[in-house]
């Protein structure tokens, strides 16, 4: 059923980002409701118009180096540099910290570097609205890791039921040196599958939003992999955190 949805729906664009191991690690019972809701929501033009407008305001308020667009230019994009890659990573972190509705489409072909307009982002209507508890737990996870607060990191893992996969997650986040992190899609596919396998073995049911977040991360890794240079993930997170403190939006003061 998952394979069918990935082939015969608006979600088919996500299929190339999935490895056989990752597909095999996914529980249909847990994932089908998530994918089904994202597909249904993507057809709600009224809601998407509101979400798109809010996202555009958020990017302007957060002083992002990226502009939100409904469509991208037809001309070929210039290659992204490590500087633009870190801007995309800051975009991802800023959304986690500042928004109560998360856009999920971070695929490479949804970004365009224009010599005059700069870096543009035109995501498809894939989004999720995480529960306050899940959003707070993810914020604890990221803040705990990048601000070297192990107690906060562990609290975030525990609230999501991910303590059993803690070592894999730490490695995924950059291990001992997130200032020189390489983003490779195949590596993320393996680590995400390992997280799912560890939780399944321990009998842990993951929050549905965890799978939605995985969709965003698959696209993010695809985009950053194309730059083929290490990036300073800690610096990107710090930039996002400073944006929150300058202009908190939709609960951004949690960080």
Key traits:
255 residues; mainly alpha; three-stranded mixed sheet; 56% helix
Strand fraction equals 5-15%
Mean pLDDT over the full residue set: 86
- C-alpha-based Rg, rounded: 17 Å
Distance between the termini: 38 Å
What gross morphology would you assign?
Answer: globular
Helix content: 55-70%
Q: Mind describing the biggest β-sheet?
A: 3 strands, mixed
Structure characterization notes:
The chain starts with a helix and ends in a 9-residue tail after the last helix. By secondary structure, the chain is mainly alpha-helical. The protein has 11 helices and 5 strands, in the order ααααβαββββαααααα. A hairpin with a 3-residue loop joins β3 and β4 (118-121). It has helices at residues 2-7, 20-25, 28-42, 45-61, 82-98, 132-146, 150-160, 166-172, 185-201, 208-225, 233-246, and strands at 66-68, 102-103, 111-114, 118-121, 127-128. α9 (185-201) runs antiparallel to α10 (208-225). The relative contact order is 0.18. The longest helix is centred in the C-terminal third of the chain and has 18 residues, at 208-225. A 3-stranded mixed beta sheet has the order 1-4-3. It has a two-stranded antiparallel ribbon with strand order 2-5.
Overview in brief:
This protein is mostly helical. Helix content is 56%, strand content 6%.
List the helices and strands and how they pair.
Layout: H1 2-7, H2 20-25, H3 28-42, H4 45-61, E1 66-68, H5 82-98, E2 102-103, E3 111-114, E4 118-121, E5 127-128, H6 132-146, H7 150-160, H8 166-172, H9 185-201, H10 208-225, H11 233-246
Parallel strand pairs: 1-4
Antiparallel strand pairs: 2-5, 3-4
Helix pairs in contact: 3-10, 5-11, 6-7, 8-9, 9-10
């Amino acid at each position: 059923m998952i394979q069918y949805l990935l082939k015969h729906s608006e979600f088919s664009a996500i299929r190339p980002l999935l490895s056989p191991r990752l597909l095999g690690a996914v529980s249909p019972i847990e994932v089908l409701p998530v994918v089904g809701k994202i597909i249904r929501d993507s057809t709600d033009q009224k809601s998407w118009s509101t979400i798109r407008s809010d996202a555009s305001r958020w990017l302007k308020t957060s002083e992002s180096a990226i502009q939100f667009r409904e469509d991208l230019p037809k001309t070929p994009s210039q290659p992204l540099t490590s500087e633009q890659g870190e801007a995309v990573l800051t975009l991802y972190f800023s959304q986690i910290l500042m928004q109560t509705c998360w856009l999920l489409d971070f695929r490479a072909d949804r970004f365009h570097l224009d010599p005059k307009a700069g870096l543009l982002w035109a995501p498809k209507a894939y989004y999720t609205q995480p529960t306050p508890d899940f959003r707070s737990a993810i914020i604890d996870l990221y803040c705990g890791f990048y601000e070297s607060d192990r107690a906060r990191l562990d609290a975030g893992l525990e609230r999501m039921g991910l303590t059993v996969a803690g070592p894999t997650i730490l490695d995924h986040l950059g291990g001992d040196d997130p200032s020189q992190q390489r983003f490779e899609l195949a590596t993320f596919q393996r680590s995400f599958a390992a997280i799912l396998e560890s939780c399944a073995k321990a009998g842990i049911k993951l929050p549905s939003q965890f799978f939605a977040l995985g969709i965003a991360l698959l696209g993010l890794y695809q985009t950053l992999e194309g730059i083929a240079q290490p990036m300073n993930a800690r610096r990107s997170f710090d930039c996002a955190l400073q944006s929150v403190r300058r202009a908190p939006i939709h609960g951004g003061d949690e960080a």
